[in-house]
Write a sequence for this structure.
């Protein structure tokens, strides 16, 4: 039975609207200025190092396709990996607005580890940076515990409430079911959930379609026409949007440098072409009579290039010479100029791209990484909002209303700046002198909340071991050692009288 798509905000209307939005974003489109806005397919190709081959004058792409592909260098992947490798979530904590001490929340840590997010959070961060945005689906598992699933914008599309860029009105996931060969879709609304199915491998959503004839409700035993109530009361998808300041629906990290990547690829291909066709010194022989093949009538090559052979002739009038090789330095400089532009635009440290670090001080390296660190801290702010929303949904599933509505929840990020152990230790000593609490000092040194909690227990145990509950119950050896220290402290200092030890 065809699904009606005419009634606004009906399940069929949302399926048509979000399905079309999802499929349209995969392909390139032309914006109002006539520029090409890359789709998700193009962004993925550049991230994988499969940028399109440029056209080089005088070279047939069909003949040179193999070595032209080898001439490409995937700088875009480095631009993506550089910030992702510094984005690490250490835990979550509540701000202590209720008077309790602010420390890592054990329940949130358990939920995080149950869902293997120590590893899978990297998928969310990379997907957000490489594909403009990523999603986390929060559902109730079989045991009643929250389950997190990373979702890609190639399969998920959402719609925000008009005038509110944080609240979702609907969410759709569409995927290919490998078991049945059908295409399935699931729609989440604040009050209900709907499932659909079609046998088409590549469903199409026409702009003016009034009904979706190829789609049908996907009904399971016990469900009424593929519809069930949404017990959470909200759309259980949390979007992680990259660079919202550039575009509200996200801007990929390497979207700025696609043209620079093309320029570098062209320079590299020109360099390889010059090496293949112009770097070899061509020899010539002037005035040489070339014999012909008596059968074919074609000229016979008089000499073969060989390091073990010498060209000679009996004719004294023949002159030998060679052409100069093509200068490759301009091509190399063109590549270097493109790499420098890429480093400046993407805030990637130059030593990441060039790989040559000789006689460079630690302060110089730290200064070179300042732009990358600032970029990562900016991404932490936006991604942290997403993880906090995920945790609130998880606590809502568990029925913990207080934590589900607490907006002092904070994501604890790993420090993105590179520091030596001596720098951290020195900073901790100075922080102690300034009155910074012990727990905050340990956090500044890079220890995770779990490590800090374990160290707190060890510190308490060490304190009990050193002092003991009762001084008189200490072992005899410890009492004798304490008495020896007191006796040593009371001895007169050599060269001074007892009066010299009395302060004025």
């Amino acid at each position: 039975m065809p699904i009606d798509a005419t009634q606004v905000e009906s399940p069929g209307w949302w399926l048509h609207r979000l399905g079309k939005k999802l499929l349209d974003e995969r392909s390139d489109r032309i914006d109002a200025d006539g520029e090409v806005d890359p789709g998700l397919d193009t962004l993925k190709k550049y991230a994988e190092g499969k940028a399109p081959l440029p056209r080089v004058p005088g070279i047939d792409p069909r003949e040179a396709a193999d070595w032209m592909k080898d001439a490409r260098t995937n700088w875009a992947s480095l631009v993506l990996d550089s910030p992702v490798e510094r984005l690490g979530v250490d835990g979550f904590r509540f701000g202590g607005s209720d008077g309790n001490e602010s420390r890592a929340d054990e329940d949130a840590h358990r939920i995080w580890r149950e869902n293997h997010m120590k590893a899978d959070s990297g998928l969310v961060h990379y997907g957000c940076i490489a594909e403009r945005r990523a999603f986390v689906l929060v559902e109730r598992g079989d045991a009643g515990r929250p389950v997190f699933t990373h979702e890609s914008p190639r399969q998920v599309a959402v719609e925000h409430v008009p005038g509110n860029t944080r609240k979702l009105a609907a969410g759709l996931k569409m995927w290919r079911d490998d078991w049945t060969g059908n295409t399935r879709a699931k729609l989440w609304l604040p009050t209900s959930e709907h499932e659909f199915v079609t046998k088409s491998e590549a469903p199409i959503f026409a702009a003016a379609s009034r009904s979706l004839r190829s789609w049908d409700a996907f009904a399971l035993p016990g469900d009424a026409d593929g519809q069930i109530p949404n017990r959470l009361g909200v759309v259980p998808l949390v979007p992680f949007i990259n660079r919202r300041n550039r575009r509200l629906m996200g801007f990929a990290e390497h979207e700025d440098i696609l043209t620079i990547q093309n320029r570098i690829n062209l320079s590299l291909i020109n360099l390889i072409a010059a090496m293949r066709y112009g770097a070899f010194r061509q020899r010539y022989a002037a005035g040489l009579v070339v014999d012909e093949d008596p059968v074919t009538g074609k000229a016979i090559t008089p000499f073969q290039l060989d390091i073990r052979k010498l060209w000679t002739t009996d004719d004294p009038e023949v002159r030998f010479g060679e052409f100069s090789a093509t200068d490759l330095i301009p091509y190399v400089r063109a590549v270097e100029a493109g790499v420098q532009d890429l480093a400046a635009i993407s805030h990637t440290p130059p030593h990441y791209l060039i790989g040559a670090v000789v006689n460079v001080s630690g302060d110089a390296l730290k200064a070179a990484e300042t732009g990358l660190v600032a970029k990562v801290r900016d991404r932490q702010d936006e991604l942290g909002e997403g993880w906090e929303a995920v945790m609130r949904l998880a606590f809502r599933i568990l029925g913990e209303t207080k934590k589900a509505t607490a907006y002092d929840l904070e994501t604890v990020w790993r420090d993105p700046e590179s520091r030596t152990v001596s720098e951290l230790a020195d900073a901790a000593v100075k922080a102690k002198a300034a009155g910074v609490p012990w727990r905050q000092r340990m956090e500044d040194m890079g220890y995770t909340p779990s490590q800090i909690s374990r160290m707190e227990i060890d510190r308490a145990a060490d304190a009990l071991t050193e002092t003991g509950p009762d001084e008189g119950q200490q072992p005899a050896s410890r009492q004798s050692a304490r008495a020896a220290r007191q006796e040593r402290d009371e001895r007169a200092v050599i060269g001074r009288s007892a009066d010299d030890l009395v302060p004025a």
